[in-house]
Amino acid sequence: MSNDQKQLFDIQPQPWNLDDQDDWLAARVAFSDAPYGPYDYSIPSNLESSVRKGVRVRVPLGRGNRMMTGYCVDIIGPAHKLASTVNPARLKDVIGVVDSKPLLSDKLIKLANWISDYYICHLGSVIDAVVPPGVRDNSGTREMLFIGLADGVLQKIEDGEIRVTAKQRLVIDQLAKGGDDWTPRELAETVGCTQAPISTLRRKGLIVSSKRRIQTITHEIPEEARREDLNLNEDQQKALDRICEQIECAEYRTFLMHGITGSGKTEVYIRAIQKVVDQGQQAIVLVPEISLTPQTRQRFRERFDRVAVLHSHLTAAQRAWHWHEIANGRVQVIVGARSAIFAPVPNPGLIVLDEEHDGSFKQDKAPRYHARDVAVQRAQEEGIPLILGSATPSMESWQNSRNGNFDLLSLPSRILDYPLPDVRTIDMRVDFGGRRRSGPISQKLRQEMRRALEEKGQVILLLNRRGFSTRIQCPACGNVEQCPDCSIPLTHHLEGRKVVCHYCDYAKPEPDRCSDCGGAAIRFSGLGTQKLEREVCALFPDYGVQRMDTDTMRKPGSHEKALAAFRAGETQILLGTQMIAKGLDFPNVTLVGVVNADTTLHFPDFRAAERTFGLVTQVAGRSGRGDKGGRVLVQTFSPEAPAIVSATRHDFAGFAEGDLPEREALGYPPFGHMARVVVRSESKTAAEQMSEHIGEQIGLSGDALNLPVDILGPAPAPVEKLRGKFRFHLQLLSPEQGALQEVVRRAQTTIKAQENVQWIVDIDPQDML
After folding, report:
1. Which of 116, 318, 568, 671 is exposed most, by the fewest CB atoms within 10 A?
2. DSSP 3-state assignment of 602?
3. Which of 162, 163, 105 is nearest to 131 (CA)?
4. Given this model, what pLDDT does residue 671 score?
5. DSSP letter for each residue of 669-690
6. Would you state the pLDDT for residue 3?
């Protein structure tokens, strides 16, 4: 911050002599918008009881004393460790308090500070992510007037100091019995009078009034029929015993539960949570994309009385109601996506993060936190166990289990000893090069689908691409139709006969001529889920087909409806994107087909192989979960790729042994720490120049601090243009924890901002595109 800015806000931390100032309090206030702070404000005596850590306050900002609402993140007094930096005589006063109760506990404020520090983002923006908008906006509440009896009124009446009418005496007697939770209307109806006696008593000061917000909306938590505990096999019991030991110790420990698909991880979670609930504590369960996993919700509601499920289909008012129910301790288990890690449970006993490898646990906008790492930090702060579960753990978690930071719990076999499905590859180079091309579904996959369906089984097909055609090209000039705002080819969608950019949602009618040369022979090629659906319906007209992707699952309840129909056997073939690879347990699925296993394999991302292995393994695990057994066919142009080979063998350890040495040689996570800087501007030249400037300043910062930081780039990002802005990026690597943050923070003080150029820092990036 410049000197002018310091003068503007009239806050200049200096060592002050406070010997003669031993009776003062100051609130440290952070804002969610610029200038983010935090800044210190004096707490006047009349607000000392209401200004607390975690509440919002109204304060004047700048020379113009613009009124702002901010979060009180600390209370500072003469004995505080920061007292020497505060001159109480120069502080402006807090004007008012917004909340009657703190929105955040001390531990959540501490967690928000850690996120702000680790991910290099402003504390106020972190708190905005912690506290849902509906809570901040008081959604589902209404301000109402409540009345109560003033002190000493009854005695004064008895002593004859005050005279009241008979109706007024009835009002006073009722208030004396009923406390101060009466509204004027409720009191009048109870006593049997008009508002007149109440108004008179208020005017005389015999009745005092106050305004409070009350909840006007409730959201019933549906209950399921109760299910008894399932029998555990030996491996499940060993894992549960180890977790329960840690719960009894009430100490932090992270467990990595590596269980193959269908090994019963969820049952172990439930039994561990039951122990926590029996102790009067609460559990947080994080799952990827909660709206896509209705079975997970059902399982928990079959076993616990009060389960709150936080997902995107709740209204702001419903989410606020759930938040208050959780904060008041009326919920036993909270199930949700990544933001549920901030649930305000008063007495947490366990955190579970299922499918911990899933990329959706990383937030792609500020604050760019990873829920797994935040969960580790929160479990440490709370002193409770954390379970990370997956059939395909992230390389970071796997390495943490190898070096002893996490305890490894293994579930190597399926429940009821069901065998893993037989997985085989289909080399599409042979099929594609043959004289009789069979379209997107190879002849072998087609035969196996028919066999499965004739045997009354069900089929799941995975294709991780939306739309109908993924490439629109002119054969005359070679032009590929691209989004005007992104360097991304447009995708043809048959529904609505339009072409769409899946990055910025740009759309226009499908073209009948080349936009470059005007040629009429334009070709639509490539395969998306819409085209696959048409192909499947043509090949198997006698069977029900359901497509699941973000185009068909937009309406609330659409996921549950589609999966319920598949579970009931109303549809026999389920096809879709990666959403069908997660959390589905259908015993009648006897065949899974991966239509194109190469969609993520060749991305310019060091995690491409890991993601491909995980996706193929996860969707393969949907097969063979019942008595009929199962088969998996993987269509690929790269059958020799290590990720594909390991997936066909269900060999996670073998894949990790091959992938980790390559990362170690390059210093990539989990052997090094990474940050990504992305610069964007409408001017390509400006973006490039700014990225070079940032790279130079980060290099100088690293030298000045004598910290080892390698800088790769700057270079154009793989998606060079996005939403109308050109993008350049740098990758920062360091073997030392915290070095990247220190170097970037120092560099931020020397980087000269350029007009119309934005840049962000992403710590531990998951998306390299």
Report:
1. 568
2. coil
3. 105
4. 96
5. TTSSEEEEEEEEESSHHHHHHH
6. 40
Distance set, CA 205 to CA 46, 149, 167 (Å): 21, 9, 17
Residue 325's closest CA among 135, 110, 182? Answer: 135
- Is 135 strand, coil or helix? helix
Neighbours of 156 (CB within 10 A): 15
DSSP string, 702-722: HHHHT---EEEEEEEEEEEEE
For residues 604 and 642, the answer to whether their CB atoms sit within 8 Å is: no
Q: How far is CA 4 from the centre of its chain?
A: 38
Residues with Cβ within 8 Å of 336's Cβ and at least 6 positions away in sequence, in order, are 284, 285, 286, 287, 290, 308, 309, 310, 311, 343
- Which residues, in sequence order, are CB contacts of 496 under 8 Å at separation 6+? none
Longest dimension (CA), the chain: 110
pLDDT along the chain (769 residues), means of 10: 38 43 86 92 93 95 92 91 84 93 94 97 95 85 81 82 87 79 85 89 86 68 71 94 94 96 92 95 89 72 88 81 91 93 96 94 94 97 96 96 96 87 88 62 93 94 90 89 91 90 91 87 88 93 91 80 88 90 81 90 89 91 83 93 93 95 94 96 96 96 94 94 95 94 95 92 92
Beta bridge partners of 96: 58
CA distance 56 to 50: 10
Between helices 106-118 and 123-130, what is the axis angle to 10°?
130
- CA pseudo-torsion sign 611, 617, 623, 627: negative
Q: Give the strands of the sheet with 589-594, arranged side by side.
A: 422-427, 631-636, 589-594, 458-462, 573-576, 545-548
Contact, 343 vs 103, CB < 8 A?
A: no
